[in-house]
Amino acid sequence: MTMSPVNVKVLGIAEQWLGTPYRYGASRLQVGCDCLGLIRGIWRELYGAEPEASGRYSRDWAELTKGEPLIDAARRHMRLKLLSDVQAGDMLIFRWRDGVAAKHLGIMAQENRFIHAYEGNSVMRSALVPQWRQRIAAVFAFPE
User: Fold this and answer.
1) Which residues of the chain have pLDDT under 50?
2) Is 104 in contact with 51 (CB distance < 8 Å)?
3) What does the domain layout of the chain look like in residue ranges?
């Protein structure tokens, strides 16, 4: 499947963030970011301003939240896709466990890998092994 022009751009930008240190709540290329900060940085590079403010959030926000704030925000600004249609450059949203809001984000890459900011590490490429794949709660395409 051929990547759309926006997916090519998303993947290229995400690769520039590789090695950026993990910093909770941050979103600065090669300075620091968390998983949301990575997506925010990609969005800014593509479109200029972020579509809405994320505000400050605690580390346990998903466990204390009703509903699906990340999925709902993605629906407001992106196109929901079927997991079977995922391609490099799409955003993945992961749920750590049932009954809790989805709270981790990444960008699908080639060769069954994804790019994400992982606590205790940096922005990195990880294999989309079954343990990760089974946690995917939603897939979204960035707007053209």
Assistant:
1) 62
2) no
3) 5-141
SS (H, E, C) 8-77: HHHHHHHHHCCCCEECCCCEECCCEECHHHHHHHHHHHHHCCCCCCCCCCCCCHHHHCCCCHHHHHHHHH
Write out pLDDT tens, residues 70-111.
999 999 999 999 999 999 999 999 998 888 889 999 999 999
Find the largest Cα–Cα distance for the chain: 40
27-35 long-range contacts, CB within 8 A, separation 24+: 33/117, 33/123, 34/117, 34/119, 35/104, 35/105, 35/106, 35/116, 35/117, 35/118
Query: Which CATH number describes the domain made up of 5-141?
Result: 3.90.1720.10
Q: What is the pTM (predicted TM-score) of this model?
A: 0.93
* Helices 5-16 and 35-47, axial angle in degrees (round to 10): 130
